[in-house]
Amino acid sequence: MGKKILIVDDDAELQFLLAQILGDAGYQTCCLRNGKSVIETMAQFSPDLILLDVKIGNIDGRSLCKHIKQTAGMEVIPIILVSAVDNLYASLDKEGGPDDIILKPFDLDDFLKRVRVFLT
Questions:
Q1: Rounded to whole angstroms, what are the CA distances from 31 to 2, 35, 45, 50, 96?
Q2: Tens of pLDDT, residues 71-105
Q3: Whole-angstrom Cα distance, residue 85 to residue 94?
Q4: Are 117 and 48 in contact (CB under 8 A)?
């Protein structure tokens, strides 16, 4: 089986689309609609990459990203923030910030290239 990607987004349609695209590219995916059980799911699923929306219900994905990056054993897992919020680039330089940012809407070829960067 391929590398594992955890998708955390409250948009069910986008989740389905991303899981479909990534599955077709040979990746194994796990989807969460909220951030409440991310740490537990990570412990069980052992993702190689996390795709994280910024607005996940009432949770800010940037805070969740920081929490994951400060959790022992999980700090090395790359996180890509996927969001329509366009003022995110300052987050890249912050402690506990994401490894990359992909703005919605995105080009699928560019999306897959950027995912591959973190999985090779």
A1: 16, 11, 10, 10, 22
A2: 999 999 999 998 887 666 556 666 788 999 998 89
A3: 17
A4: no
